Amino acid sequence: MKNRYGSHVLVTGASSGIGAAIAEMFAMNGCSVTGTSRHCEEQTKTYPGGGSLTFMKMDVTDPQSVDTVIERIPQIDIAVLAAGMGVAGSAEELPLDLARRQIETNYLGVLAVGNAVLPKMRAQKKGLFLVIGSIAGRVSIPMQSHYSSSKYALEAYVDAIRMEMRPYGVRACILEPGDTRTGFTSARRTYIQKGSPYEHVIQKSVAKMAKDEQNGRPPMSVAKVAWKMTGRRNPPARVPIGLEYKLLMFLLRLLPDRLKEWILSLMYLPK
Q1: Among candidates 230, 231, 227, which has minimal Cα distance to 21?
Q2: What percent of the chain has pLDDT over 90?
Q3: Which of 120, 151, 152, 198 is labelled catalytic?
């Protein structure tokens, strides 16, 4: 498959999970990849075929950190924004500081990188801007309302980028993984207020999420779709990962809201 956009690639959240799989996939296909993370050893790995992966420390919630790193990268043809984290708990009780942390990482972190990367792409009149969203960005998950909100926001952001950057030769797409086997599950922050009436439901709901994720697809399944987008002259606006999720998104468009809520409640709000 021909990569239409170029070999200089930026991947955020590249030290683990989906971001690590994507960074490796692009490097194995001959790209010069800069992988960023808050926690990584700054080093360069080389791959057969001429590809490489260089790790650099960067915190997407710190605009100065983002600008400093991006300024050190002379050319970025493809940016894959995979940095993210998860918070679980009831919408009523989750403290605002945790909600802010969720939004600052998953949404504002993408904006910070976009603000630094998109001018480079516009100037070179070419680029591919890939954002890792979630199925939860189109279907709000009970006890993950703030995570879902952060991913919903990315859907709107990418839609705007697609329209604004098209005249400059820049394409954008949001990938929507469902349950995926990564360290995201163990890193999720679950908040239960002392004496909460939701305590039992939160525990059961988060346990169901964890089980589904650890029985889900490997992160390389997302990496393969990300690489496939490099061969598309006009990538689609959004791509659910996996046939079952493509079918789910199609069916949910047909169902009335009350029926969707009933189904999701059965799945994630155990009695």
Answers
A1: 227
A2: 91
A3: 151
